Amino acid sequence: MFRHLPPLQSLRALEAAARHRSFTRAADELNLTHSAVSHHMRSLEQQLGTPLFRRVGARMIPTSVGARLAERIRIGMSELDEAFTEARAGTAAGASPATVRLEVSVMTDLAAQWLIPRLDRFSAQHPGIDLMIRLHTDVAAPDPYSVDVGIWHQRVEATGFVSRKLLTDYVIAVCRPELIDRLPNFTIDDTPKLPMLRFAHRSWRDWLVAAGLPPHEPTRGPIFDDAGLLLRAAVAGQGLATTRSLLVRDAIAAGELVQVGDVCIPPSLEYYVSWREHHPRERAIHAFWQWMQDEIAATVPLGKGIARGGKTARP
């Protein structure tokens, strides 16, 4: 039985090398030397009679055979890991049903402003699922095999993955209500009179044009590289900020921020939720996906128009 299986360490080395596209990074993860990983790959290739990797520059790209085999190994290892987790829970004194752990990679802004404040509700509804939150800051999606669920700005186009758009969002302008109160009878035309916070990844131009205002970018003041820090500055009353509406709906509902005008422009990037088909924890993944949809549907909707007097933006 299992007479065709090579050593487990060789299989782990193949899975890690395919995931990292690097023998060096696979060796670091498995606490092996680079030559040991190379030896495992040569041994597997001799046993199979076909190449498993090809070198492209500094990267080791798995062949079609190598990629398929690594994926099957990854699924098998995940199932073994889950089986041992269940076994440990079952042998513990007075143990409750086994807990499933999902590793979720999520964009930092969405995690800080929307997901994390709601995690207690997820835990209450799904006590058998623990979420491990991994923050992601790059626009490009990471290796989709590295986590169970990814909430990123790009779809995963790899074969065998599901990518679904999280929601249709839009960009609005917000500020502290006290900031508007400084200008009696405030209208949208008064916007340039207020300090306008700058974001490294979005200009003010599109919002200003949609509001019928001169598209003059602010030239002074701090520039924020992180959307979460930008919103903290807005909540602190330091100026107006453009932001995705989903990220500030809680702050608007709490009265910490108000929407300026009814200008809504499409974001340059969307959020996509991605996971692998036939994942061993597929039921937990679907529960998490459904919970996110329910939470978005229940999020307080934004009103139209200026919250503190004056006319709304021109179409």
**What sequence of helices (H) and strands (E) makes up the elements?**
HHHEEHEHHEEEEHEHEHEHEEH
According to DSSP, the number of beta strands is 12
Q: Main β-sheet, in a few words?
A: 5 strands, mixed
Question: How would the global form be characterised?
Answer: elongated
- SSE-based structural type: alpha/beta
| Physical arrangement of strands within the biggest beta sheet | 4-3-5-12-6
Rounded radius of gyration (Å): 25 Å
Question: Would you kindly provide a written description of the structure presented here, covering whatever features stand out?
Answer:
- The protein has 315 residues and is an alpha/beta fold.
- The protein has eleven helices and twelve strands.
- Helices cover 40% and strands 17% of the residues.
- Strands 4-3-5-12-6 form a five-stranded mixed beta sheet. Strands 10-7-11 form a three-stranded antiparallel beta sheet.
- The protein has helices spanning 8-20, 23-30, 34-48, 64-91, 108-115, 119-125, 177-181, 205-210, 227-235, 245-253, 282-298; strands spanning 53-56, 59-62, 100-107, 129-136, 149-152, 161-165, 171-175, 198-199, 223-224, 241-244, 258-259, 272-276.
- Helix 1 crosses helix 2, helix 1 packs across helix 3 and helix 1 crosses helix 4.
- The N and C termini lie far apart (72 Å).
